[in-house]
């Protein structure tokens, strides 16, 4: 069984994913970390040296490799479901859960963690808010294809674990 957490950056995919993997005794994989290890470069370095197209190819290749594994919980990048039929691959190889959060809450979380996210550090507060609103709207089509949609704000690990026990064959 593979469980994929998808959603916008800052919605809690990695933190929820790690806790759920630990609770289930599964391996946790952060897709961005997986890509960085494969490439020997950070995500910002891949983007600046090779460009987004190259990154998206690496992302899809990595996702295909992960799809062959078992008993893993995967935290995808925010844009992962939106490229190269990745959402089809995610849905056909495991269960996908969209951690849904409002643009306002995402903006607030990202504003607080801007220094930890190099791709956002150059944005003014207004630009960041507009970026979140625009990208979330653009990506919603892909995110909404997830098997399950869960409101992420205030989500507790126990609630997610109970949800998984009720809805998935674990």
Q: What's this model, at a glance?
A:
The protein has helices spanning 13-24, 31-39, 43-50, 52-67, 86-93, 103-112, 125-143, 157-167; strands at residues 2-6, 27-30, 72-75, 95-100, 148-151. By secondary structure, the chain is of the alpha/beta class.
Radius of gyration: 15 Å
| Number of domains as seen in the coordinates | 1
CATH class placement = Alpha Beta
Q: State the helicity in percent bands.
A: 40-55%
| Overall residue-averaged pLDDT value | 92
The biggest beta sheet reads: 5 strands, parallel
Which CATH-level-2 architecture? Answer: 3-Layer(aba) Sandwich
**Widest sheet, order of strands:** 2-3-1-4-5
How would you explain this protein's 3D organization?
This protein has 170 residues and is α/β, with parallel strands linked by helices. It has helices at 13-24, 31-39, 43-50, 52-67, 86-93, 103-112, 125-143, 157-167; strands spanning 2-6, 27-30, 72-75, 95-100, 148-151. It has a single domain (2-162), classed as P-loop containing nucleotide triphosphate hydrolases (Rossmann fold, 3-Layer(aba) Sandwich). 55% of the residues lie in helices and 14% in strands. It is built from eight helices and five strands, in the order E-H-E-H-H-H-E-H-E-H-H-E-H. It is globular, with a radius of gyration of 15 Å. The mean pLDDT is 92. A five-stranded parallel β-sheet has the order 2-3-1-4-5, sandwiched between helices.
